Amino acid sequence: MAQKASPYAIRLGYNQVWNNYFFPEKGKENINWLKRDKLIRDYFFLTFPDTDRLKIEYTKNTIFIYLYIPEINLVLGENNEKLEKVIKDIYGLVNDNNIAVKINLVEVKKIYTHAQSIANLIAGQLKKRTRSRQVIKTLLTKLAAEREIKGVKVEVSGRLDESDNAQTKKVVYRKMPLSTIDSKIEVGQKVVITSYGTIGVKVLIYKGKIWQKRGSKNQNWN
């Protein structure tokens, strides 16, 4: 039987990093940190659907949140009113006066070079009832202009285009060496809830190899 593994999970510690860091002293603390992490992530992904990446670091007295998003102004609001409300809501979720919360906003400039941002764009178009074939065709046209991208795989499944039966559409552009560990591959996933059913979106981006052949002068470290 074929064994499938997450392209992100099998590369952790090699060319991928964790999205959360915490080192509990006791087993019970581990459970509490996991619950808090789940609450915080659900809140951000629900409040800001365009979030590209959410990285959270926990220390004994502070929670550092790194929010990667294309438009920072959507988080700040006028006179930082929306950001203050977000921080207040996070304090309510943590429910611990001894822990401080610090949010760092990172702007994602090249949207079409990040798998999660592409998945968010596809999900937004499908929610507007745009034809799935048209969405994928437009996407591949824009990705062709990005030199950083060596290959793309897009998979959309569900009741596409309001069809009666669920179906899956897969499109592979250029290369996608999933079995090669030294390949740098980003994964983006999104679930679209529509009036006629739920649609799943999965995007994989291949950005080349970390290690070039022995003797090569130029090595790709990104």
Distinctive features:
single chain, alpha/beta, GMP Synthetase, Chain A, domain 3, Ribosomal protein S3 C-terminal domain, 29% strand
Instruction: Output the radius of gyration.
Output: 20 Å
Q: Strand order, biggest sheet? A: 1-2-3-4
CATH homologous superfamily assignment of the largest domain: Ribosomal protein S3, C-terminal domain
Report the principal-axis shape. Answer: globular
Q: How many β-strands, per DSSP? A: 8
Q: Which spans have pLDDT < 50 for at least 5 consecutive residues?
A: 213-222
- Beta content: 25-35%
What is the C-level CATH assignment of the largest domain? Alpha Beta
Helix share, percent? 25-40%
CATH architecture of the largest domain: 2-Layer Sandwich
Structural class by sheet pairing and helices:
alpha/beta
CATH topology of the largest domain: Ribosomal protein S3 C-terminal domain
